[in-house]
Each structure stands twice: as structure tokens, then as C-alpha cells.
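Troubleshooting entry. Yesterday's outputs looked truncated, so today I'm pasting the complete records for two proteins to confirm everything comes through intact. If either block looks cut off, that's the bug. Protein one:
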Amino acid sequence: MKLLGISGTIVGSKTAIAVEKALETVNRSHSEVQTELLDLRQYDLQFCDGRNPSDYTGDTRKVIDIVSSADLYLIGTPIFQSSITGVLKNLFDLVPVDALYNKVMGFIATGGTYQHYLVVENQLKPIAGYFRAFVAPSYVYLHDDHFNPEKKIVDPDVLQRIDKLAHEVVFMHQRLKA
């Protein structure tokens, strides 16, 4: 089984750090799970223009294939202007609807205010619902205060919640596919 962690931004590093931390938890505890990080900073995605996903080429085609081939997901985004990033929304627009059908998703968000955690409830969960994906009950929101100046996650409660989310996503996938 393949767990894909997605860092849904092309700027900054805190979101990728948080998603990588969750993938590390899975790697330590679930040897049956293959993990991969899709860091959108490393790809040049075209804007979705309504064509068939199979008609895209280059990095866009590669990313669509990577997302489509995964079995479960940990999706991270920073919150900008009280919303998910445009690059993550574009990724959701590019991926075929059936690619995420009945797959488990967990969400990690980062931001500079404590109110932005609501974006998970008000934007990410409805998008998952559109894809008919299963959503882990837990999610993790990390504020800038949860990182030290070297961008290491230092809040023990947040680290515990990341571990819980990582286990929850794998557990849900295993039970739903049994």
C-alpha cells in the first residue's frame, strides 16, 4: 500500500516539514506501507484548463500519475488569505475524480493565526467529499509558534497529534480495505 504525503505549496517549508513528520511516523510503525512525499515546490504544474487529465504532459502528467497511483493520503497546505493554496486547488482540479474515490485522506495545515484551522473543516473536508474520499476524523493545524527558529516542530502536543493522525489514516485504510 502506498501513502502519499502532499505538500501543497510552492513557497516555504513548514508544510513539507509537518507532512514529512507524519510520514516518518508511518515509516517507523507500519513496514507494510510505502511512503512518498510529493512536494509541489519541485514541479512545474500547468493550470487546469478542463482538458482530459490524460492529455497533460511533463510535470503535470507526472504529478497526476503520482497522485492517482497512491492508496491513501496525508495532504498538507499552508493557509493563505483564509484559504488553501492555489497550487493545491489546482492539483485537485487536475486529478480525475475517480482517482481519489473511496481512498482515505488526512489533513495537515499550517498558518500564522489560530483561527485558520477552520479552513480544514470548511474547505478541505468538502473537497474530499466531492471526491467521495474518506476523511480521517483527526487533522493537525500547526501555528508558527509550534516551530522553533530552525523550523523544527517543538510543541509536544502537536507532535503527538501528528503521530495520531498518521496512525489513524493507516488504520482507516486497512479497515476499509479488509
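Protein two, checking that the full record survives here as well:
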Amino acid sequence: MDKQNLLCLSLGAYIGASLRLEIVSTYTNYFNDDIIPIDMFDNFLGSFVIGFYNDRYKIKDLSSHLAISTGFCGCLTTFSSWMLGSIKLANSEQWLNCLINIFLGFIIAYSGFKLGQNAEIEFKFLFHKKLLYLAFLKIIIFQAIFKKWNMIITALLSPFGAFLRFQISKLNHKNFPFGTLICNSLAVWIAQLLILSTLQFDTDDSKIVKSILKGFCGSLSTVSTWIKEICTMQSIELRFIYFWISLFLSLYIGLIICQSLF
């Protein structure tokens, strides 16, 4: 990856992660229900955007594709946070609520992607890299003015997760996205270990761990790409298998980690 592509990926990741953190912060101020996925709004928005652009830049302009799809949408949406909420419900034996959480999370992201695809047919919005730099400057200035240092540190970890996801995504096969499956599962497992480790740390150390969890793990995993792959896979059988394997690996191993170490 050359410097320009890496820069576009990093800026897109920072913008996406910052927007996710703002949305989740606003959400938690008004809602406190474990049944509803905490990242439902950002997962919807990220899935809508990736459906709207639908890889239109992938061949002719890789840097724009990396900025929008891998960076912005990949870091705006997060698979790990959604699954952690489901694992929490399952670990407390709230099985019905766990299923509702999974169902709502999937339907919301799926609806966002389909709406984005339909909007792409009706509207055309050309992306320009200057918008990326402008958005980054506005966000970082806003965060600095309001002294959101924790958010800045957390968002700065997002490019590392996005870059690792990009590298692992090279394992994706044309018939089955092994790379995305590995990224999402790995992010959930690491995040679960980090959550359990915070029980043994003091306040300052817990803040650092939570920044890694939200910044790195949240960006290593992605709902937008996962939904896009499910919707665009040729085989219906493989769509079904991919969906359930993704959920099973994340939930089952996550529960084993939780019950073994807690």
C-alpha cells in the first residue's frame, strides 16, 4: 500500500470511528436498554453509505475506495460491540433478549444497505478527496475545542484496526469472505478479553483498555462489509452458512472466554 492510499484509509478510519463514538455517546444518554444494539444507528448509517457507493471507486480509484468503504464505513460500523452486547445477554441467560438483539442488529444494518443501494440508483454523489481532508480537520478541531481527549486517543487507534482488517481481507475468496470472518471473530474475542481484564485494573488503566476496545477492536471488525458480502454472495446457501458461522464463532467462543475467565 502506497502512502496516499494509507493516508486516505487512515483519515477515513478516523472520521468513521469519531462519528461512531459521538453517535454511541448520544445514544447512551437517552437509552439504557441492553436488548437494543448500542451501535444500531452507526451500523445503519455505515451500511447505507457502503450500499450507496457500492464499490464504484474500487477499480478506478483505490484510495477513494479505501477511504469510504474500508476506512469510513468499516470503522463507523462495528461487529464486535454488537456481539459483546449479545454475549452479555447470553451470559446472564437472557436468551430471548439475546436473540432479539441479534435480530434487530441484523435487520437494521440490512435495511440500511438496501436503502443505500436504492438511493444509489436515484442519486449520484461524486466523492472527492478534498472532502476527506476537510471533514478530518473539522472533526479534530471540534474535538480539541471541546477537549474530547479520550475520543481523540480512541479514534487514533482506529487506523491500526482498519489497516489490519485490510491486510486480512486479502484472504477473502471470491466465493467466501474468510478474511472478514477472521477479522470479526478475532475482534470479538480480543474485546471480550479486554473487558474481563478491566475488572483487575484501576480507573486509568481501564480507560486505556476501553480506548483499545472501542478504537482498535471496533475498527478491526465491521458490519457494513459483512452485510454487503451477505447481500452480494452468489450462493444463497453460502449466505446462510456465512451468517451463522459469523454469529456462532463470535458468540460461542466469546461465551467460553467469559465463563472461563470471569
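Both blocks look complete. Sanity check on protein two: The chain has a mean pLDDT of 91.
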